[in-house]
What we know:
By secondary structure, the protein is of the alpha/beta class. The protein has helices at residues 16-21, 43-56, 75-82, 98-111, 128-132, 134-138, 151-158, 170-183, 198-211, 224-231, 235-253, 268-283, and strands at 7-12, 29-33, 63-67, 89-92, 120-125, 144-149, 186-189, 215-218, 259-261, 264-266. 45% of the residues lie in helices and 16% in strands. This is Citrate lyase subunit beta / citryl-CoA lyase.
Amino acid sequence: MMQLRRxxxxxxxxxxxxLQNGGVFGADAVILDLEDAVAPQEKDAARxxxxxxxxxxxxxxxERVVRINxxxxxxxxxxxxxxxxxxxxxxxxxxxxxxxxxxxxxAVALAERPGQKPVNLIALIETPRGLAEAYAIATAxxxxxxxxxxxxxxxxxxxxxxxxxxxxxxxxxxxxVNAAAAAGIQAIDTPYTDAxxxxxxxxxxxxxKHLGFRGKLTINPRQIDIIHRVFNPSTKEIxxxxxxxxxxxxxxxxxxxxxxxxxxxxxxxxxxxxxxxxQLAKLLGLREEEGQ
Length: 292
Ligand SMILES: CC(C)(COP(=O)(O)OP(=O)(O)OC[C@H]1O[C@@H](n2cnc3c(N)ncnc32)[C@H](O)[C@@H]1OP(=O)(O)O)[C@@H](O)C(=O)NCCC(=O)NCCSC(=O)C[C@@](O)(CC(=O)O)C(=O)O
Ligand SMILES: [Mg+2]
């Protein structure tokens, strides 16, 4: 079944209050963060807090992801402490190449308890080399279920200026979407870092959806509803998808693999797109009249 990752809410791993309340906002995933939100001198304390949260906090059905540190810093200690607490996935930062994922997967396998549900990996692509190797990273191990883009680190590394419209990350976004699609996994977009700019967030999220992303990293609970609204199929999309499926059924009954809808050709790729919209609508419990 398709795993919803429209929103993946970062929660700083050194903030007990935020860790405690992180389940009440309805994010599809929470990311308990041991990396950049936590200063080096707080890493050990944050690891204990996050392990405790995984065991005792109810995240109300949100996928429970932990962002570990890179394996050349605190990452191996993170994996050893966190994996036995049963997270759904680890977000591996600054992945450069397939070997980084292979090393993480090996450490995870060693840390898993017998009978434990396998821990997935999500690769955070935020370096020029990581982007260049994105497909190899995506296919390095069967635990990898998504690629996510980290545009702040990436633009800093290539020396680009960040702009509200994001022209400087267009190539990175499309390359990442293509690598994820080629590997048959999800692409998750970079966070929108101004938590107070709702119009900017909506515009940026709509553009990410248009490019093929399935969700967006999220830094503040106030961003969740806006992002969900954008990624949810609209009434118009659901209506179109139903009519596509109906049109192709009719055409097939008449012995043809191609149909026409409002003068436009409907064939296999169009039907695939329509079926994905209907699958998402079903997963979200949206009926035609409830889409937005
Ligand atoms: C942004 C802001 C400071 C705004 O503060 P504000 O004060 O305006 O928040 P308010 O909205 O007023 O909060 C109202 C109530 O919600 C609670 N609340 C807020 N945020 C919450 C939350 N996240 N989880 C649970 N609870 C939360 C809060 O405690 C309060 O609760 P209460 O007091 O009870 O009412 C705050 O959200 C925040 O710290 N976010 C997390 C930031 C973070 O994790 N960054 C690192 C990860 S990104 C990254 O690393 C990407 C990348 O890898 C990518 C790349 O490379 O591009 C990189 O490298 O950059
Ligand atoms: Mg980063």
